[in-house]
Specification:
With 342 residues, the chain is of the alpha+beta class. It has 11 helices and 13 strands. Strands 1, 2, 3, 4, 5, 6, 7, 8, 9, 10, 11, 12 and 13 form a 13-stranded mixed beta sheet that branches. The N terminus is likely disordered.
Length: 342
């Protein structure tokens, strides 16, 4: 069986794997298991120091990446890698990840690429380990490929960072064929519009800062996602129903990470002050195919962005960034530098 097809089938079937726990301790054990299964040559591809600049090499387009891919692994190694990914993500995020990978097969058909053309390849998703997975060390890992980037950072067996967490889809809505009307990131769109449509006319005038949507997420692939002062409409200007809808939207993005970590992150957002959260919109105000839009939710410690403008507004980019702990944060890196030289 061709390696690309094997990878696609494996990802499709991963939901039927045995139940895996999602605590940070379990992720340490799963990462160690994955590394142990790699040959010395494969470890050269997959393992990096924690303080390497490669750890910040975040992107979400088809390009040449570092790390080891499905195409370079055995079935047993694939399963170990995917068990780690499944334990690190929320259940819904893992399902969406599986479906985003499968869109590569559809894109290859849509673009009429030849069979030997591997530009769209469900096997071309990379696993990279930074540092040594252990309950006594600082380490991290990354899963990345076209329209997916998940970055996890650990202090011993504590998960301290799970961002950037990027998910995109092309097409956003499948227009024909057996998967017609499939919309992987439907919730990201629907919940954003739900917040917008719940606003009064005067509130909407504040929230919508431009009738022309941004061409992409503003944070893009930047190491530092901090944007200018927030604008739009603040949480404190919303009524309780509107506030609930906005919190549901935030929860959707935060729960891209595993459940326990996401719940702790939501507590941090609340601690930072809900009244300091802003909702911003540009572009069209109805979910109409071909009509682009962008929204942003920004608080003191986090940033959410969603953009659907490319390919005649049928191509979504969405991201959750932790402004304090992206890539583990500066404090974790400094701690690593101190402890690694002791």
């Amino acid at each position: 069986m061709p390696k690309i097809m094997k990878a696609a089938i494996l990802v499709c079937g991963i939901l039927f794997l045995s139940h895996t726990l999602s605590s940070a301790q379990d992720q340490v054990l799963m990462a160690k298991r994955f590394v142990q299964l790699l040959s010395s040559e494969q470890q050269t591809l997959a393992l990096f120091p924690f303080d390497t600049e490669e750890r910040y090499n975040f992107h979400f387009v088809p390009l040449v990446r570092k790390g080891i891919t499905f195409n370079e692994m055995t079935d047993e190694q694939d399963a170990a890698a995917l068990n780690l990914l499944k334990a690190s993500l929320g259940a819904v995020a893992f399902q969406k990840t599986r479906e985003i990978i499968q869109l590569e097969v559809l894109l290859k058909e849509i673009e009429n690429r030849k069979q030997e053309d591997n530009y769209r390849d469900p096997g071309n998703y990379h696993f990279s380990i930074f540092g040594i997975p252990s309950d006594k060390s600082i380490w991290g890992w990354r899963f990345e490929g076209h329209h997916l980037s998940f970055n996890f950072s650990f202090d011993k067996n504590k998960l301290v960072g799970a961002t950037p967490a990027f998910m995109g889809t092309n097409p956003a809505i499948v227009l024909s064929g057996a998967n017609k009307d499939k919309q992987v990131l439907k919730d990201e769109s629907a919940k954003g519009f739900a917040v917008l449509h719940a606003l009064t006319e005067s509130q909407m005038k504040k929230a919508i800062i431009d009738s022309v949507p941004y061409k992409d997420i503003l944070s893009f692939d930047k190491r530092n996602a901090l944007l200018k002062e927030p604008n739009g409409i603040s949480f404190s200007e919303l009524n309780p129903t509107q506030q609930t809808l906005l919190l549901e939207l935030i929860g959707l993005y935060v729960h891209r990470a595993s459940k326990l970590f996401a719940e702790d992150k939501l507590k941090d957002i609340q601690k930072d002050g809900l009244d300091k959260i802003w909702f911003t919109w540009t572009g069209h105000t109805e979910p109409t195919l071909g009509k682009g839009c962008y929204y942003r939710v920004q608080g003191p410690g986090f940033l959410i962005e969603y953009d659907n403008t490319q390919n005649k507004a049928n191509h979504v980019h969405s991201v959750f960034r932790d402004l304090k702990h992206d890539f583990g944060g500066d404090e974790l890196l400094e701690h690593y530098k101190l402890t690694s030289h002791n």
